[in-house]
Amino acid sequence: MKPSFQLQLVNDPFGDPALYVEFLFRKRAILFDLGDIHALAPRKLLRLSHIFVSHAHMDHFYGFDYLLRVCLGRAKTIHLYGPSGFIDRVEHRLGGYTWNLVENYVDELVFRVQEWDGGDTMRCAKFRCRHRFARESLPPERVAEGELLKEPGLKVRAAVLDHKIPCLAFALEESRHVNIWKNRLDELGLPTGPWLQALKQAIWRGERDDFPIEARWRENGVAQMRRFTLGELKEKILRIVPGMKVGYVVDTLYNEPNLRRLKSLLESVDCLYIEAGFARDAADSAAEKYHLTAAQAGQIARRVGAKRMVPFHFSARYAGEENPLYREAEAAFSGMSCP
Ligand SMILES: [Zn+2]
């Protein structure tokens, strides 16, 4: 089943981290990390609704000013998520400019910022253009099982990793796809129509098999209706397949607590984007900087049961010599070597 989104690393593997996720037919996108994003056309930036920032080291957050420049003067709310201290980081960035002429802007840009420390709630604040981007505190929001965002068809979960500072890893999870067998509908003499949408929503809500579904339509001007249970329709006309799960992991120390958190976050991930910054012979250097080697990245992908791995965020010291990093990551991923 094709996923409902497309994935694009904004820069090459030596560039700043940023993973652009564009939803098909919806003119909407989300972003993981906000490094240098000049490679994204303004029309793509204007589609961003939610941005998840792993931590505020410069290569992960440098793109904020460009985003602000492109979106300023637009009627738009952008949700930003980050680790502890992130609201302060956003406030300082916005405080670096003079905002004396923005009160009369017709369209208002709003940043709604959430920071999460791994607990049951996240702190929230908003920054409105017409209020000169002054910080306004909002009530905290509940976070269950690391779910930072949950909406129909989609959720984003996070885990706090140790990068000498807290650093968030993310999992983007699509809801199950519900496909209708059109030929079986025809065999039952049932037409398509809005009732099928209600049927899909009942599945996404997790209703039980005895949940009643009414198929309603008009035939020659006469209202028609037939009753089914959800279980009957699942058997007769539906094919339900799992949605896609994407993982995003950068800047973390290879140790057991981090591995346990990643295992829980990324179980059976379809596609894992993972930093693979250093070669095996620089493992000490990677550990000193609280980063992963390519082999450790491959080993993590293997341990969480990833179906596919995309190594990236290579150290600049390997510029032009990235092939050994890919090879070391692949070898560990396939089980041919250990980190
Ligand atoms: Zn970092």
Description:
This protein has 339 residues and is of the alpha/beta class. It has 11 helices and 18 strands. Strands 1-2-3-4-5-6-7-8 form an 8-stranded mixed beta sheet, with helices on one face. Strands 9-10-11-16-17-18 form a 6-stranded mixed beta sheet. Helix 4 links the parallel strand 5 and strand 6. The chain is globular. The two termini are 34 Å apart. The mean pLDDT is 93. The structure holds zinc ion. Zinc ion binds next to loops.
Features:
339 residues; alpha/beta; six-stranded mixed β-sheet; 18 strands; binds zinc ion
Q: Strand arrangement, largest sheet?
A: 1-2-3-4-5-6-7-8
Largest sheet, strands/sense/barrel: 8 strands, mixed
Number of strands: 18
**Outline:** globular
**Distance separating the two termini:** 34 Å
Bound molecules: zinc ion
Low-confidence stretches: none
Number of helices, where a helix is a run of at least 4 consecutive DSSP H or I residues: 11
Radius of gyration: 23 Å
Category by helix and strand content: alpha/beta
Name the beta content range. 25-35%
Helix and strand string, N-terminal first?
EEEHEHHEHEEEEEEEHHEEHEEHEHHEH
Mean pLDDT: 93
Helical content band: 25-40%
